[in-house]
Amino acid sequence: MNLVSHEAWLRFAIFAGALLAVGLWETLAPLRKPTVPRSVRWFSNLALAAIDTGIVRLLIPLGVVGAALFAEERGWGLFRQVDWPAWLVIVLAVVALDFVIWLQHVIFHAVPLLWRLHQVHHADLDFDASTGVRFHPLEMLISLGVKVVAVSALGVPAVAVVIFEILLSTTAMFNHANVRLPGWLDALLRLLVVTPDMHRVHHSVETRETNSNFGFNLPWWDFLFGTYRAQPDAGHEAMTIGLTAFRDPRVCWLHWMLLLPLWRRLGVQAEMAGGDPRLEPAASDASEKRCVLDASSKRR
After folding, report:
1. Strand pairing partners for 273?
2. Which ranges of the chain does DSSP label H, i.e. alpha helix?
3. Which of 4, 44, 185, 258 lies most in the core, judged by the most C-beta atoms within 10 Å?
4. 116's torsion region: left (phi>0), alpha (psi -120 to 50) or beta?
């Protein structure tokens, strides 16, 4: 089967299979008890993923694969300038794209405006497979633009793009899983892939832990650049998931996820607005609680 021509259906089938498999695993052997009903979160998170997909397909129908084919026709990119075996180019291209996504993730934490978008992902009060698809549509569009530029500049083959996207969506289900791996297996897997325990640290409410373990597929970049943190201080079952500024369960509702970048925090005193959450406009000063890599970490 031609991976490129069947890219959309292939990605969806593998994504759906991974989501169902990990979801069943979490149901049978969950690590943590939920703080919000699972049905509420899964409905909202999957609905947000559907909105993301619809917007991306509508605005950029050819996607990253289309960009790869476009660049290939014109001979663009670094990999087009070398005479290396196809398999080696594919492997190196997948690794290079993984680094690009890791760096993008770091930047989304470091730049306040981008953090406003990315906090939708981190505001989830629980951590499971559905968290892996919880991203604001604007973040998805920016990420798509980054990948289009990277693929064009590097000359990534279209088949490498398909492989990378499949790996990215599949590992997103795995490394957000609410499951416990045996310690020896987790330690072994961490040499090659980001595990649930490794990525769960990144979703801690503690800023010093949130600013670690940025990897999605490969853990190597965190090892290399000093952003690796082995375990959360409070332990995986006792640690608090989410963000200090967003503790109201209604942050897991779909419409608030879409509006979240516009607000600084979602209050818990709902009676002040006739049953609606009390919202405060986003602040631009230094008192705003945000998760950045410089001053915020030092203040903790």
Report:
1. 276
2. 7-28, 38-59, 63-74, 86-110, 112-122, 137-154, 158-175, 183-189, 196-202, 207-210, 220-225, 254-259, 295-299
3. 44
4. alpha
DSSP 273: B
pLDDT in tens, 140-156: 999 999 999 999 999 99
What pLDDT score was predicted for residue 205?
97
In this predicted model, what pLDDT tens digit does every residue of 262-274 receive, in sequence order?
875 444 333 223 3
Q: Please, which residues bridge with residue 276 across strands?
A: 273
> CA–CA separation, 151 vs 192, rounded Å?
23
CA dist., res. 255 & res. 246, Å (int) = 15
Both tokens of residue 49? 């993923």
Specify the DSSP class assigned to residue 276. B
**The pLDDT value given to residue 138:** 96
Instruction: Report the alpha-carbon distance of residue 110 to residue 98 in Å, rounded.
Output: 19
Rounded CA-CA distance 216/270 in Å is 36
Whole-prediction pTM value?
0.86
Tokens standing for 17?
Answer: 């299979």
Residue 243: DSSP 8-state: B
Tokens of 230: 């082995």
Angle separating helix axes 112-122 and 137-154, nearest 10 degrees: 110
